[in-house]
Design goal:
single chain; 613 residues; alpha+beta; SH3 type barrels; Arc Repressor Mutant, subunit A; 5-stranded antiparallel sheet; globular
């Protein structure tokens, strides 16, 4: 412990653990910061609670001690990163005389493992010139793999893992597997074995011993950790596939066995978390698991497996000439407005290739439905990637409205302008693309539509008060607190990697957008108690009794713009259901989408009566 700090500990002014951590930031010591890189402490001011550090990317950086505690990690002088500052010429000489020793030293300083990208970041430009690094690393990686000093993965994103002890490489790999305490550890060990399968050329018995352990682990995991069981069996199959002598025992657990014992939705949920290569292995096992029903099973899960899963399933179906079944399923889901965001993204991206027979005018309505429903839900957003695609793909909207007739294009453009998901600037940008292909939609922006958007909103007094209360809280409490949070986060320094600052600024954008939205809506709002509503037709403030084809009665109440409550059968006159009902008379039929199945149902209006609050 540093003498100055020891005095503070002895005097009882700071606890001993704090004193030990503080001593690590004493002048002359070294530390690592996520953004600034490695640094050497050059001075501190204990009374002022500040420390000054010369970082690789920011010399003379002064920090609050508390922030330095949180954002830096102490490293010893023997650490590779510290030696880059103090003994750089020694490292440069070592890179020429013994490159393997240099790599081993670097791996030891990083806990025994790191990716190729991380290794390049540490060495290139500082120890070895950038122009010479690629050639140097190609030769060194080859020598490292031949030396068996470390496991060298085929991909840059895989971990280079340093081997330790006197055991042979094969024994070390097997020991790593046997020492694994959970399924994740077993999977990592199998990946290392697959990456260095050559170490077992003369010792396949060691691998064979593992297969029984894998079977046991997979059976146990399947009951509570299906995703990990799938990963384990897929990793085992990768090892067997990379070996020339290993064969899978006929009684061993296979991916198809795990699929058969799992509900489709559970399978979709767990497989969507897997890396894309292992997802493909799972979906390729469908024919073995489900026989003649494998295509139907693939269609059932395609909307729940995430973006990578949709892509892999589509590729497998295409390779096996079964894509028409997927096309039929996607068409049906789009017609019912029931297709999820990930599958819809795939349709949009593959609209000129595999999904050419799916891409239709209905895709546009489905996109807007998803965005609007997600915007109104209370949970985390699920359609951010879909909204981003709509903006980033410059030809998506033009291709979409290009296959619509005039009325479809106008209706789509009108819905887009009404969609609360998009900001004003985003709407202008998207409409510019639509107008370029369909000039007749320009009137929605330049004339009638802009006037209609400023019409009053009819709302209940209760909903108006709720909006006013939310705006009041924003102005008096949330925005001032956010301003304070930004100021505090800014004092932490390094705004590029300051999570607290970025988070506070993102919240600021949301709060200001919400404030503007509330002010605009409240200005347009006109409160009403709905008394005296005309009930000769469906109107705002009326209760409608409808019957379906089977004669079952459904009662809906059409109220103000902010009064939707599906559980109580209250609908806003601006909602899709409200728009379908308003203006209709008894005896007329309407098409309304079922909220559970998303399918359209035909209902007949039986009676209309005034709503009495």
């Amino acid at each position: 412990m540093h003498p100055e700090v020891a005095k503070l500990v002895e005097a009882g002014r700071i606890p001993k653990p704090v004193g030990e951590r503080l001593s690590q930031l004493a002048p002359g010591n070294f530390c690592v910061h996520k953004s600034f890189g490695t640094g050497k402490v050059i001075a501190w001011d204990l009374p002022g609670k500040k420390v000054t550090i010369d970082f690789e990317k920011s010399a003379g950086q002064t920090m609050e001690l508390q922030f330095a505690f949180q954002k830096t990690e102490w490293i010893p002088l023997t650490d590779f990163r510290a030696q880059k500052i103090e003994q750089l010429e020694t490292l440069r000489a070592l890179s020429k005389s013994d490159p393997l020793a240099l790599v081993v030293h670097l791996l030891q300083s990083h806990g025994g493992s790191m990716t190729s990208d991380a290794l390049e970041k540490e060495i290139s430009g500082a120890v070895i010139a950038e122009a010479a690094f690629k050639k140097w690393w190609t030769l060194t990686r080859k020598a490292l793999r031949a030396s068996r000093l470390a496991v060298v993965p085929p991909k840059r994103t895989g971990l280079i893992i340093l081997r330790t002890g006197d055991r042979s490489p094969a024994e070390a790999l097997v020991a790593d597997f046997e020492a694994a305490r959970d399924i994740k550890g077993m999977i990592r060990a199998l990946e290392a074995i697959a990456a260095d399968i050559g170490a077992f050329e003369s010792d396949t018995n060691a691998l064979k011993r593992l297969l029984c352990d894998i079977d046991e682990g997979a059976k146990k995991a399947a009951r509570v950790q299906l995703g990990q069981a799938l990963q384990l069996v897929a990793a085992r199959d990768e090892v067997i596939g990379s070996s020339k002598t290993l064969e899978l025992d006929p009684g061993a657990v296979r991916l198809s066995d795990l699929l058969l014992s799992t509900e489709p939705m559970k399978l979709a949920e767990e497989s969507s978390k897997l890396p894309s290569g292992r997802q493909r292995a799972v979906y390729e096992a469908f024919p073995d698991a489900f026989a003649d029903e494998w295509v139907e099973k693939s269609d059932r899960v395609v909307d729940h497996v995430g973006a990578r899963g949709v892509t892999e399933i589509a590729r497998i179906l295409l390779e096996r000439d079964e894509l028409p079944a997927l096309v039929k399923h996607l068409r049906s889901s789009i017609a019912r407005r029931a297709l999820g965001a990930d599958a819809l993204i795939w349709v949009c991206r593959e609209r000129k290739t595999a999904a050419v027979d799916v891409f239709s005018a209905d895709v546009g309505a489905t996109i807007l439905n998803l965005l609007e429903n997600d915007h109104l839900s209370d949970g985390p957003r699920k359609t951010s990637r879909l909204q981003t695609l709509l903006g980033d793909d410059k030809h998506l909207l033009t291709d979409l409205v290009g296959i619509m007739d005039v009325n479809e294009a106008r209706n789509f453009a009108r819905r887009l302008l009404d969609c609360a998901v998009f900001g004003d600037l985003e709407k202008k940008s998207l409409m510019a693309r639509i107008i370029k292909v369909r000039p007749e939609t320009g009137e929605l922006v330049n004339g009638t539509h802009s006037k209609r958007r400023e019409e009053a909103l009819l709302v209940s007094w209760d909903s108006l008060e709720r909006k006013k209360s939310e705006l009041d809280e924003l102005i008096r409490v949330r925005i001032p607190q956010n301003t304070k949070d930004i100021s505090i986060a800014r004092s932490y320094g390094d705004l590029r990697e300051n999570f607290e600052y970025k988070s506070a600024k993102d919240l600021q954008k949301y709060l200001m957008h919400r404030k503007h939205e509330l002010e605009r809506d409240i200005t347009r709002a006109r409160g009403t108690d709905f008394k005296g509503s005309n009930s000769t037709t469906v109107n705002i403030g009326t209760i409608v009794t409808l019957t379906d084809i089977a004669g079952a009665e459904i009662e809906m109440t059409v109220l103000g713009a902010w009064d939707s409550d599906p559980e109580k059968k209250l609908v806003s006159y601006l909602s899709e259901v409200g728009k379908a009902l308003v203006g209709r008379k008894p005896g007329e039929t309407v098409q309304i989408r079922d909220e559970t199945t998303e399918a359209f149902q035909t209902l007949t209006i039986q009676s209309i009566r005034p709503y009495n609050p």
